[in-house]
Design a protein that fits this description.
Blueprint: E1 26-28, H1 36-42, E2 47-53, H2 54-58, H3 61-70, E3 75-82, H4 88-98, E4 106-111, H5 113-127, H6 132-135, E5 153-157, E6 169-174, E7 179-184, E8 192-195, H7 205-223, H8 248-270, H9 275-290, H10 297-308, H11 326-331, H12 334-341, H13 346-356, H14 360-365, H15 370-381, H16 398-406, H17 409-412, H18 421-431
Length: 439
Protein backbone atom coordinates (compact mmCIF):
# COMPACT_ATOMS: atom_id res chain seq x y z
CA UNK A 1 0.00 0.00 0.00
CA UNK A 2 1.48 3.42 -0.90
CA UNK A 3 2.43 5.83 1.90
CA UNK A 4 -0.36 8.43 1.97
CA UNK A 5 1.19 10.54 4.74
CA UNK A 6 1.90 14.06 3.42
CA UNK A 7 5.63 14.64 3.18
CA UNK A 8 5.43 17.63 5.52
CA UNK A 9 4.19 15.38 8.32
CA UNK A 10 6.79 12.62 8.01
CA UNK A 11 9.23 12.30 10.86
CA UNK A 12 12.93 12.60 10.15
CA UNK A 13 13.53 9.36 12.07
CA UNK A 14 11.21 6.35 12.35
CA UNK A 15 8.52 7.11 14.95
CA UNK A 16 4.91 6.28 15.60
CA UNK A 17 2.67 8.75 13.79
CA UNK A 18 -0.79 7.21 14.25
CA UNK A 19 -2.99 7.87 17.29
CA UNK A 20 -5.61 5.11 17.62
CA UNK A 21 -7.90 6.99 20.00
CA UNK A 22 -11.38 5.50 20.24
CA UNK A 23 -14.52 7.32 21.32
CA UNK A 24 -16.77 5.31 23.61
CA UNK A 25 -20.59 5.50 23.64
CA UNK A 26 -21.74 7.13 26.89
CA UNK A 27 -24.99 8.34 28.38
CA UNK A 28 -24.14 10.80 31.15
CA UNK A 29 -26.30 12.66 33.63
CA UNK A 30 -28.59 12.38 36.65
CA UNK A 31 -31.36 9.94 35.85
CA UNK A 32 -29.59 8.37 32.87
CA UNK A 33 -30.13 4.92 34.41
CA UNK A 34 -33.85 5.24 33.67
CA UNK A 35 -33.05 4.84 29.97
CA UNK A 36 -31.35 1.46 30.33
CA UNK A 37 -34.31 -0.52 28.97
CA UNK A 38 -34.36 1.51 25.80
CA UNK A 39 -30.59 1.16 25.36
CA UNK A 40 -30.57 -2.58 26.04
CA UNK A 41 -33.35 -3.19 23.53
CA UNK A 42 -31.48 -1.08 20.95
CA UNK A 43 -28.50 -3.42 21.42
CA UNK A 44 -30.72 -6.43 20.73
CA UNK A 45 -30.75 -7.81 24.27
CA UNK A 46 -33.59 -10.17 25.19
CA UNK A 47 -32.15 -12.16 28.12
CA UNK A 48 -29.79 -10.27 30.43
CA UNK A 49 -27.62 -11.04 33.43
CA UNK A 50 -27.23 -8.09 35.80
CA UNK A 51 -23.83 -8.52 37.53
CA UNK A 52 -23.31 -6.75 40.85
CA UNK A 53 -22.08 -7.28 44.42
CA UNK A 54 -23.88 -7.74 47.72
CA UNK A 55 -23.35 -4.17 48.95
CA UNK A 56 -24.65 -2.55 45.78
CA UNK A 57 -27.48 -5.09 45.65
CA UNK A 58 -28.57 -3.97 49.12
CA UNK A 59 -29.18 -0.44 47.77
CA UNK A 60 -31.90 -1.80 45.48
CA UNK A 61 -30.32 -0.37 42.34
CA UNK A 62 -29.66 -3.69 40.53
CA UNK A 63 -33.26 -4.81 41.11
CA UNK A 64 -34.49 -1.44 39.84
CA UNK A 65 -32.34 -1.90 36.72
CA UNK A 66 -33.78 -5.39 36.18
CA UNK A 67 -37.29 -4.04 36.60
CA UNK A 68 -36.62 -1.28 34.09
CA UNK A 69 -35.30 -3.85 31.61
CA UNK A 70 -38.50 -5.82 32.13
CA UNK A 71 -40.66 -2.89 31.08
CA UNK A 72 -39.01 -3.20 27.66
CA UNK A 73 -39.76 -6.90 27.41
CA UNK A 74 -36.24 -7.99 28.40
CA UNK A 75 -35.85 -10.95 30.75
CA UNK A 76 -33.38 -9.93 33.46
CA UNK A 77 -31.73 -11.90 36.25
CA UNK A 78 -29.60 -10.37 39.04
CA UNK A 79 -26.42 -12.13 40.16
CA UNK A 80 -24.77 -10.49 43.20
CA UNK A 81 -21.71 -12.71 43.54
CA UNK A 82 -18.99 -10.19 42.65
CA UNK A 83 -16.07 -10.04 45.08
CA UNK A 84 -14.45 -6.69 45.79
CA UNK A 85 -11.08 -6.93 43.99
CA UNK A 86 -12.06 -10.11 42.10
CA UNK A 87 -9.87 -13.21 42.12
CA UNK A 88 -9.54 -16.16 39.82
CA UNK A 89 -11.34 -18.16 42.53
CA UNK A 90 -14.28 -15.73 42.66
CA UNK A 91 -14.60 -15.84 38.86
CA UNK A 92 -14.63 -19.64 38.98
CA UNK A 93 -17.37 -19.57 41.63
CA UNK A 94 -19.39 -17.33 39.35
CA UNK A 95 -18.94 -19.72 36.44
CA UNK A 96 -20.09 -22.59 38.64
CA UNK A 97 -23.21 -20.61 39.56
CA UNK A 98 -24.04 -19.63 36.00
CA UNK A 99 -22.75 -22.13 33.45
CA UNK A 100 -25.81 -24.42 33.56
CA UNK A 101 -28.32 -21.60 33.10
CA UNK A 102 -29.78 -20.67 29.71
CA UNK A 103 -27.43 -18.47 27.69
CA UNK A 104 -27.55 -14.69 28.01
CA UNK A 105 -27.47 -12.41 24.99
CA UNK A 106 -26.54 -9.35 27.03
CA UNK A 107 -24.99 -8.30 30.31
CA UNK A 108 -25.39 -5.25 32.54
CA UNK A 109 -22.68 -4.52 35.14
CA UNK A 110 -23.92 -2.44 38.08
CA UNK A 111 -21.25 -1.44 40.58
CA UNK A 112 -17.63 -0.40 40.76
CA UNK A 113 -14.73 -1.65 38.73
CA UNK A 114 -14.85 -5.04 40.42
CA UNK A 115 -18.38 -5.70 39.16
CA UNK A 116 -17.57 -4.48 35.65
CA UNK A 117 -14.39 -6.57 35.43
CA UNK A 118 -16.19 -9.62 36.82
CA UNK A 119 -18.94 -9.10 34.24
CA UNK A 120 -16.39 -8.94 31.42
CA UNK A 121 -14.69 -12.16 32.51
CA UNK A 122 -17.95 -14.06 33.06
CA UNK A 123 -19.13 -12.98 29.62
CA UNK A 124 -15.85 -14.14 28.06
CA UNK A 125 -15.63 -17.50 29.82
CA UNK A 126 -19.30 -18.40 29.44
CA UNK A 127 -19.18 -17.54 25.73
CA UNK A 128 -15.75 -19.02 24.91
CA UNK A 129 -15.04 -21.55 27.69
CA UNK A 130 -11.39 -22.04 28.55
CA UNK A 131 -9.14 -21.74 31.60
CA UNK A 132 -8.78 -18.07 32.58
CA UNK A 133 -5.02 -18.31 32.11
CA UNK A 134 -5.55 -18.92 28.40
CA UNK A 135 -6.64 -15.29 27.95
CA UNK A 136 -4.50 -13.56 30.59
CA UNK A 137 -1.71 -11.34 29.29
CA UNK A 138 1.88 -12.56 29.56
CA UNK A 139 3.73 -13.33 31.73
CA UNK A 140 0.77 -14.56 33.79
CA UNK A 141 -1.07 -16.33 30.98
CA UNK A 142 -0.99 -17.43 27.36
CA UNK A 143 -2.35 -14.12 25.94
CA UNK A 144 -4.56 -16.05 23.51
CA UNK A 145 -6.82 -13.98 21.29
CA UNK A 146 -10.53 -14.10 22.08
CA UNK A 147 -11.82 -16.40 19.32
CA UNK A 148 -15.02 -14.59 18.43
CA UNK A 149 -17.58 -11.92 19.33
CA UNK A 150 -19.14 -11.56 22.77
CA UNK A 151 -22.64 -10.55 23.85
CA UNK A 152 -22.83 -6.80 24.53
CA UNK A 153 -22.26 -5.33 27.98
CA UNK A 154 -23.72 -2.12 29.39
CA UNK A 155 -21.68 -0.68 32.26
CA UNK A 156 -23.52 1.22 35.01
CA UNK A 157 -20.89 2.49 37.47
CA UNK A 158 -21.77 3.26 41.07
CA UNK A 159 -18.32 4.73 41.79
CA UNK A 160 -16.34 7.60 40.30
CA UNK A 161 -13.02 5.89 39.78
CA UNK A 162 -11.76 3.06 37.67
CA UNK A 163 -13.76 3.72 34.49
CA UNK A 164 -13.80 0.02 33.58
CA UNK A 165 -17.14 0.62 31.89
CA UNK A 166 -15.15 2.29 29.07
CA UNK A 167 -12.11 0.01 28.83
CA UNK A 168 -11.08 -3.12 26.91
CA UNK A 169 -9.40 -4.61 30.00
CA UNK A 170 -10.43 -6.78 32.96
CA UNK A 171 -8.12 -7.12 35.95
CA UNK A 172 -8.14 -10.10 38.29
CA UNK A 173 -6.12 -11.18 41.33
CA UNK A 174 -4.49 -14.60 40.95
CA UNK A 175 -5.15 -15.79 44.48
CA UNK A 176 -2.42 -18.38 44.98
CA UNK A 177 0.29 -16.26 43.35
CA UNK A 178 -0.80 -13.02 45.08
CA UNK A 179 -0.45 -11.11 41.82
CA UNK A 180 -2.81 -9.12 39.64
CA UNK A 181 -3.14 -9.92 35.95
CA UNK A 182 -5.31 -8.72 33.09
CA UNK A 183 -7.18 -9.79 29.99
CA UNK A 184 -7.16 -7.09 27.33
CA UNK A 185 -9.07 -7.09 24.05
CA UNK A 186 -11.30 -4.64 22.18
CA UNK A 187 -13.98 -7.34 22.34
CA UNK A 188 -14.19 -6.89 26.13
CA UNK A 189 -15.07 -3.22 25.95
CA UNK A 190 -18.69 -2.58 27.03
CA UNK A 191 -20.86 -1.40 24.20
CA UNK A 192 -22.27 1.45 26.31
CA UNK A 193 -21.55 3.22 29.59
CA UNK A 194 -24.43 4.77 31.53
CA UNK A 195 -22.80 7.21 33.95
CA UNK A 196 -25.41 8.50 36.39
CA UNK A 197 -24.00 10.61 39.26
CA UNK A 198 -27.03 9.73 41.41
CA UNK A 199 -25.76 6.15 41.56
CA UNK A 200 -22.65 7.30 43.47
CA UNK A 201 -24.52 8.83 46.40
CA UNK A 202 -24.43 5.58 48.41
CA UNK A 203 -20.62 5.35 48.41
CA UNK A 204 -19.14 5.60 51.93
CA UNK A 205 -16.26 8.06 52.47
CA UNK A 206 -13.45 5.49 52.27
CA UNK A 207 -14.78 4.10 48.99
CA UNK A 208 -15.26 7.62 47.62
CA UNK A 209 -11.64 8.37 48.50
CA UNK A 210 -10.22 5.13 47.14
CA UNK A 211 -12.02 5.26 43.82
CA UNK A 212 -11.24 8.98 43.54
CA UNK A 213 -7.53 8.28 44.01
CA UNK A 214 -7.69 5.79 41.15
CA UNK A 215 -9.23 8.34 38.78
CA UNK A 216 -6.86 11.08 39.92
CA UNK A 217 -3.66 9.05 39.74
CA UNK A 218 -4.51 7.52 36.36
CA UNK A 219 -5.18 11.01 35.00
CA UNK A 220 -1.78 12.21 36.24
CA UNK A 221 -0.03 9.10 34.89
CA UNK A 222 -1.72 9.49 31.53
CA UNK A 223 -0.78 13.16 31.29
CA UNK A 224 2.86 12.39 32.16
CA UNK A 225 3.12 9.17 30.12
CA UNK A 226 5.74 8.54 27.49
CA UNK A 227 4.74 10.50 24.35
CA UNK A 228 3.18 8.33 21.65
CA UNK A 229 5.65 9.56 19.01
CA UNK A 230 8.57 8.24 21.09
CA UNK A 231 7.53 4.72 20.10
CA UNK A 232 8.65 3.03 16.89
CA UNK A 233 5.90 2.75 14.28
CA UNK A 234 3.67 -0.29 14.62
CA UNK A 235 4.70 -2.95 12.13
CA UNK A 236 1.11 -4.19 12.18
CA UNK A 237 -1.88 -2.04 13.21
CA UNK A 238 -3.26 -4.97 15.21
CA UNK A 239 -0.11 -4.95 17.33
CA UNK A 240 -0.49 -1.32 18.38
CA UNK A 241 -1.15 -1.27 22.17
CA UNK A 242 -4.47 -0.05 23.54
CA UNK A 243 -2.65 2.57 25.65
CA UNK A 244 0.10 4.10 23.55
CA UNK A 245 1.32 7.25 25.27
CA UNK A 246 0.53 10.92 25.82
CA UNK A 247 -1.15 12.60 22.84
CA UNK A 248 -3.39 15.58 22.05
CA UNK A 249 -6.63 13.58 21.87
CA UNK A 250 -6.18 12.29 25.40
CA UNK A 251 -5.13 15.72 26.65
CA UNK A 252 -8.50 17.08 25.52
CA UNK A 253 -10.18 14.93 28.19
CA UNK A 254 -7.32 14.64 30.66
CA UNK A 255 -6.98 18.35 31.33
CA UNK A 256 -10.60 18.92 32.42
CA UNK A 257 -10.43 15.69 34.44
CA UNK A 258 -7.51 17.05 36.43
CA UNK A 259 -9.18 20.43 36.89
CA UNK A 260 -12.38 18.86 38.21
CA UNK A 261 -10.65 16.47 40.59
CA UNK A 262 -8.46 19.18 42.03
CA UNK A 263 -11.57 21.10 42.95
CA UNK A 264 -14.05 18.39 43.96
CA UNK A 265 -12.38 15.23 45.26
CA UNK A 266 -11.97 16.50 48.81
CA UNK A 267 -15.56 17.77 48.82
CA UNK A 268 -16.98 14.43 47.68
CA UNK A 269 -15.11 12.54 50.43
CA UNK A 270 -15.93 14.98 53.22
CA UNK A 271 -19.61 15.37 52.30
CA UNK A 272 -21.12 12.46 50.39
CA UNK A 273 -24.37 14.36 49.95
CA UNK A 274 -22.69 17.20 48.06
CA UNK A 275 -24.51 16.75 44.75
CA UNK A 276 -22.30 19.21 42.89
CA UNK A 277 -19.19 17.31 43.99
CA UNK A 278 -20.71 13.93 43.10
CA UNK A 279 -21.68 15.20 39.64
CA UNK A 280 -18.24 16.68 39.06
CA UNK A 281 -16.40 13.56 40.22
CA UNK A 282 -18.51 11.32 37.96
CA UNK A 283 -17.62 13.60 35.08
CA UNK A 284 -13.96 13.74 36.09
CA UNK A 285 -13.67 9.95 36.38
CA UNK A 286 -15.29 9.53 32.97
CA UNK A 287 -12.98 12.10 31.40
CA UNK A 288 -9.92 10.48 33.01
CA UNK A 289 -10.83 7.21 31.34
CA UNK A 290 -11.76 8.71 27.96
CA UNK A 291 -8.43 10.55 28.06
CA UNK A 292 -6.37 7.58 29.17
CA UNK A 293 -3.14 7.43 27.19
CA UNK A 294 -1.57 4.85 29.48
CA UNK A 295 -0.54 4.45 33.10
CA UNK A 296 2.92 3.74 34.42
CA UNK A 297 4.73 3.35 37.75
CA UNK A 298 1.92 3.95 40.29
CA UNK A 299 -0.41 1.41 38.66
CA UNK A 300 2.37 -1.14 38.15
CA UNK A 301 3.50 -0.63 41.75
CA UNK A 302 -0.12 -0.88 42.87
CA UNK A 303 -0.21 -4.44 41.62
CA UNK A 304 2.92 -5.11 43.67
CA UNK A 305 1.43 -3.54 46.79
CA UNK A 306 -1.83 -5.47 46.50
CA UNK A 307 0.03 -8.75 46.01
CA UNK A 308 2.40 -8.20 48.92
CA UNK A 309 0.02 -6.72 51.52
CA UNK A 310 -2.45 -9.55 51.12
CA UNK A 311 -3.46 -9.59 54.80
CA UNK A 312 -4.56 -5.92 54.84
CA UNK A 313 -8.16 -5.07 55.77
CA UNK A 314 -9.20 -1.55 54.72
CA UNK A 315 -10.93 0.56 57.38
CA UNK A 316 -14.27 1.93 56.21
CA UNK A 317 -14.67 -0.54 53.32
CA UNK A 318 -17.76 -2.77 53.58
CA UNK A 319 -15.92 -6.05 52.91
CA UNK A 320 -15.42 -9.23 54.94
CA UNK A 321 -12.06 -10.30 53.55
CA UNK A 322 -8.51 -8.93 53.33
CA UNK A 323 -7.90 -6.72 50.29
CA UNK A 324 -6.05 -3.61 49.24
CA UNK A 325 -8.48 -1.26 47.46
CA UNK A 326 -7.09 -0.55 44.02
CA UNK A 327 -7.13 3.22 44.51
CA UNK A 328 -5.20 2.92 47.76
CA UNK A 329 -2.58 0.70 46.14
CA UNK A 330 -1.89 3.15 43.30
CA UNK A 331 -2.01 6.26 45.48
CA UNK A 332 0.65 5.28 48.00
CA UNK A 333 3.59 5.37 45.55
CA UNK A 334 2.23 8.13 43.32
CA UNK A 335 4.04 11.04 45.04
CA UNK A 336 7.43 9.33 44.77
CA UNK A 337 6.72 8.14 41.23
CA UNK A 338 5.75 11.61 40.02
CA UNK A 339 8.92 13.08 41.55
CA UNK A 340 10.89 10.38 39.70
CA UNK A 341 9.41 11.10 36.25
CA UNK A 342 9.42 14.90 36.60
CA UNK A 343 12.89 15.46 35.09
CA UNK A 344 11.80 13.66 31.91
CA UNK A 345 8.56 15.64 31.44
CA UNK A 346 8.89 18.82 33.54
CA UNK A 347 6.42 20.86 31.48
CA UNK A 348 3.77 18.12 31.71
CA UNK A 349 4.18 17.74 35.46
CA UNK A 350 3.97 21.50 35.95
CA UNK A 351 0.85 21.76 33.79
CA UNK A 352 -0.81 18.90 35.66
CA UNK A 353 -0.04 20.66 38.93
CA UNK A 354 -1.46 23.91 37.60
CA UNK A 355 -4.68 22.20 36.51
CA UNK A 356 -5.06 20.58 39.92
CA UNK A 357 -4.77 23.94 41.62
CA UNK A 358 -1.22 23.82 42.99
CA UNK A 359 -0.26 27.47 43.63
CA UNK A 360 2.18 29.04 41.18
CA UNK A 361 4.52 30.02 44.02
CA UNK A 362 4.84 26.40 45.19
CA UNK A 363 5.44 25.22 41.63
CA UNK A 364 8.17 27.81 41.09
CA UNK A 365 9.81 27.17 44.47
CA UNK A 366 10.18 23.40 44.05
CA UNK A 367 9.09 22.20 40.58
CA UNK A 368 10.37 18.67 41.26
CA UNK A 369 8.23 18.19 44.36
CA UNK A 370 5.29 20.60 44.15
CA UNK A 371 2.82 18.16 42.59
CA UNK A 372 4.04 15.28 44.76
CA UNK A 373 3.62 17.35 47.93
CA UNK A 374 0.13 18.46 46.89
CA UNK A 375 -0.90 14.87 46.15
CA UNK A 376 0.47 13.60 49.46
CA UNK A 377 -1.44 16.32 51.33
CA UNK A 378 -4.69 15.46 49.51
CA UNK A 379 -4.33 11.77 50.37
CA UNK A 380 -3.63 12.58 54.02
CA UNK A 381 -6.60 14.96 54.23
CA UNK A 382 -8.97 12.30 52.88
CA UNK A 383 -7.79 9.43 55.08
CA UNK A 384 -5.68 7.57 52.52
CA UNK A 385 -2.30 5.84 52.71
CA UNK A 386 0.68 8.22 52.64
CA UNK A 387 3.31 5.54 53.36
CA UNK A 388 3.62 1.81 52.76
CA UNK A 389 3.60 1.26 56.52
CA UNK A 390 -0.16 1.96 56.28
CA UNK A 391 -0.54 -1.57 54.85
CA UNK A 392 1.67 -3.21 57.49
CA UNK A 393 4.61 -3.43 55.09
CA UNK A 394 8.25 -2.98 56.11
CA UNK A 395 11.51 -2.59 54.24
CA UNK A 396 11.94 -6.35 54.50
CA UNK A 397 9.15 -6.50 51.91
CA UNK A 398 11.09 -4.44 49.35
CA UNK A 399 12.39 -7.36 47.27
CA UNK A 400 8.88 -8.84 46.97
CA UNK A 401 7.36 -5.47 46.08
CA UNK A 402 9.91 -4.97 43.31
CA UNK A 403 9.60 -8.56 42.07
CA UNK A 404 5.83 -8.23 41.73
CA UNK A 405 6.07 -4.84 40.02
CA UNK A 406 8.88 -5.35 37.52
CA UNK A 407 6.82 -7.96 35.64
CA UNK A 408 4.14 -5.35 34.78
CA UNK A 409 5.85 -4.45 31.53
CA UNK A 410 2.52 -3.61 29.84
CA UNK A 411 2.28 -0.62 32.21
CA UNK A 412 5.92 0.26 32.81
CA UNK A 413 6.54 0.75 29.10
CA UNK A 414 4.54 3.99 29.34
CA UNK A 415 6.99 5.49 31.88
CA UNK A 416 8.72 8.55 30.34
CA UNK A 417 12.07 7.59 31.94
CA UNK A 418 13.84 4.23 31.78
CA UNK A 419 12.72 2.20 34.76
CA UNK A 420 13.98 -1.09 36.10
CA UNK A 421 14.61 -2.79 39.43
CA UNK A 422 16.91 -0.07 40.75
CA UNK A 423 14.49 2.75 39.96
CA UNK A 424 11.49 0.85 41.33
CA UNK A 425 13.42 0.12 44.52
CA UNK A 426 14.05 3.86 44.95
CA UNK A 427 10.35 4.66 44.47
CA UNK A 428 9.32 2.06 47.05
CA UNK A 429 12.06 3.20 49.45
CA UNK A 430 10.75 6.76 49.24
CA UNK A 431 7.19 5.53 49.78
CA UNK A 432 8.22 4.04 53.12
CA UNK A 433 9.15 7.56 54.16
CA UNK A 434 7.42 10.58 52.72
CA UNK A 435 7.89 10.19 48.97
CA UNK A 436 10.47 12.96 48.75
CA UNK A 437 13.65 11.04 48.00
CA UNK A 438 13.00 8.97 44.86
CA UNK A 439 15.20 9.34 41.80
Amino acid sequence: MPDVTPAAFRFASPAESVIPWQAHPVRFGPGATQEIGYEARALGMTRVLVVTDANVSATGLPDAVAERLGTYGIEAEVWAGTRAEPTDASIERGLTDLRDRPAYDGYVAVGGGSSVDTCKLLNLLLTHPAPLTRYLAAPHGEAAAIPGPLPPIIGVPTTAGTGSECTPTAVVDLHEQHVKAAVSSPLLRPRLAIVDPLNTLTMPPAVTAGTGYDALVQAIESYTARPYASRPPAADPSARPAFYGANPFCDAFGEPALRLMGRYLRRAVLDGGDLEARYAMSQAALFSRLGLAGVHIPHAAGYGVAGTAHAYRPPGYPVDHPMVPHGFSVAVTAPAAIAFVQPAVPERVDRAAELLGVPAQARALDPRRALSDWLRELIADTGGPVTLEHFGLTRADLPELVDRTVTQTRLLTCTPRPVGREELTAVFEASFEDGRTAG
